Amino acid sequence: MIRHGETDWNAEERLLSRTDMPLNTRGEAQARDLAATLAAVSWDRAITSPLIRARRTAQILLAGRPDAPDLTIDDRLVEMDFGPYEGWTSAELEADPVAVTRRRDGAQLPGVETEAEVASRARAFFADPILLTGTTLVVGHGRMLRILLTTCVLGVTAQIAEHLRMRNCRPAIVEPGRKPLLLGFNIGRPDDVGPAR
Description:
By secondary structure, the chain is α/β, with parallel strands linked by helices.
């Protein structure tokens, strides 16, 4: 499971959900580097979110491979909808009285998709029997994939996802099944560590 490569809004640490923003130059390079790292992996299937940043990352990962499977688009992998907070920075959220009060009180931000709704989509995706055989490439988005990992793999609440950071183009490896296992998270070279955006 891979979060797409970097976009300009990721670099600016802005909330990015349904805005269909492309990869930036660094994001394209991240995807190419990861493609080289994963060159020995044989994929039985490849599934991506419909948003261009995820689709492009998946296309780069599969490019030039004679054994590459067809890329399947799955709407269930789309990022959590941040609604009216789309494009906001953390500083802007912290300065907004409604956001501050709601977050402090553990209340839902108005117009934002709930974690429960995202978890429901994640569970529906992860329950697909096709994931139980072979090796699957899944390319999606940070918040959605973190909620999938916490609720479907680790068996904890979606709120725990807030405490994880998934770096761009740094895989999480999951072994599905009756008792799924998280075998790796944010896998990459030790010298390739930067801020998680």
